[in-house]
Amino acid sequence: MNNMNDWFGTSFKDLQNEHIKKDIDLNFDDSEFKKTDNKKNTNEYNNLKETKKIKTTVNDIRVIEKLRKEELNKVIDCLPKKNEYIHIVSNGNFDYFKLIPRILQLSKNNFNLYASTWTMNYSNIDELTKLIEVGKINNCTILVGDYLRKREPLVFQHLKQSLYENNGKLIEFSNHAKIICMSDKENYYVIEMSANFTANRRTEQMVFCNSKLVYDFHVKWMEELINDK
Length: 229
What we know:
By secondary structure, this protein is of the alpha/beta class. It is 31% helix and 21% strand.
């Protein structure tokens, strides 16, 4: 694939067809991901000890209701300006992981990525890995729910190994938050949404903003969990 437009235009069916089934090394050295029992920021249920809250005041909030059958590039037709918030209701006509390459496509810059989701699939992981390998994502931290390890162990191991081999970070806990944080050190894009990365046909909502305050808020609690390792 020669450019981001070629990459973004790749369908999930094509990705699945291209995905070569291979043995996943279940014995690779994953000591980097092993956690200690000395956790300061998680409780007995392996969840956050306390609810995090931020309150902001903005002068210009753009509310967009997009409950219609559109492709993602029509729904996300521009990136929010600094301190602009875009509120979106979607009918689930696209895979929500595609929000990440869409931001990369519109910006043309390289980004640091923090992302939280309950679950992922092979296509998400393969696409994420390629974005890291081609240098579009410089630093990558992924938070997933323990559901993924328990119910989809091979998918979880594939994600774990891919991030390990590309100097990424993986945190697995009682997580159900769906958040994307991407920064090129000039813009600070955050998407807070109800949807997982995987595709579905349900109505979902999201708030897409460009706010360093919100970005720093989410990255801070994510880093707290990383430091618990």
